[in-house]
Design brief:
single chain; 268 residues; alpha/beta; Ubiquitin-like (UB roll); Rossmann fold; 3 domains; 6-stranded mixed beta sheet; 3-stranded mixed beta sheet; 12 strands; transmembrane; cell cycle
């Protein structure tokens, strides 16, 4: 103890305490840095683990979907068929049983189905987990065209998709007087007329005849004749014919000039 009552050792103790405090404070940033590094390492390892797991899952899914029978084709359904047998459509699609669904070329299968003459359109869709659906739209018969001793069945676009031995009495027969070249020119115009007419009037048409593309005539069920003319202005001619038919029955209707329709030989 000194004469003034202070302990000479106190300054020393204070200095030591201050030094220790400074040392602890100086260690704090290092500890925080080390903690951050440990946390960063944990996140890095976790990220690697998650990435590897996801890659393995993706590989497993790829193998299961593309290279195993777990999701393979076992059933094929057909929708939209009418006159064509479903089995014929399935055979045309040529989809092999046991093929993984993911590897099926649905576009190519649909194209094979469209090669069937009666099929206007076709699509193939997958029906997971084991099926495929073939959806078709068949061509609609529009007329019969004599070909030798038989009759070609054509749709409104002129596509031949069937043959019949004799007229059915339901479809109009397109008869062309002239060479194959004349026939090739007349048939599209005749079909354009049928396409333009209202269904109720189409049902009255029993025959179409022409000696050139611009001399088309329609014969109706009551025996009356429609002078149609050429393939031009089909919609206007169809509207004129509908208007004339509403006026009453006649032996002959002339819509070849749609701006001046006429009817003659009225008998009612």
């Amino acid at each position: 103890m000194s004469d003034d009552g202070t302990d000479p050792a106190d300054p020393a103790r204070s200095a030591i305490a201050s030094a220790r405090s400074l040392t602890a404070v100086s260690r704090l940033p290092a500890q925080l840095y080390a903690a951050r590094m440990r946390a960063r390492e944990r996140w890095r390892r976790l990220s690697i683990t998650v990435t590897v797991t996801l890659v393995l899952l993706a590989v497993a899914a790829y193998i299961i979907i593309w290279h195993t029978p777990v999701l393979a084709l076992t059933t094929v359904r057909v929708a939209g068929e009418k006159s064509v047998r479903a089995q014929q459509i399935v055979n045309a699609a040529a989809l092999r049983d046991g093929t993984p669904l993911a590897s099926l070329d649905t576009g190519a299968a649909a194209a094979r189905v469209r090669r069937l003459p009666p099929i206007a359109s076709a699509s193939v869709s997958l029906d997971w987990p084991h099926g495929a659906v073939i959806t078709v739209t068949e061509r609609v018969p529009a007329a019969l065209v004599p070909e030798g001793a038989r009759y070609d069945v054509v749709d409104v676009s002129g596509v031949v998709f069937g043959v019949r031995d004799a007229p059915s009495g339901v479809l109009p027969v397109i008869r062309v007087q002239g060479s194959p070249a004349v026939k090739a020119a007349v048939v599209p115009g005749a079909l354009a007329a049928l396409k333009a007419l209202a269904p109720v009037i189409v049902g009255q048409v029993t025959g179409i005849s022409a000696s050139s593309a611009y001399s088309i005539e329609l014969t109706l069920r009551d025996g009356s004749v429609v002078e149609w003319g050429g393939p031009d202005a089909a919609s206007a001619k169809a509207a004129d014919l509908a208007a004339l038919l509403r006026l009453g029955k006649a032996a002959r209707y002339d819509v070849s000039a749609p701006e001046a329709p006429a009817m003659s030989g009225r008998y009612d």
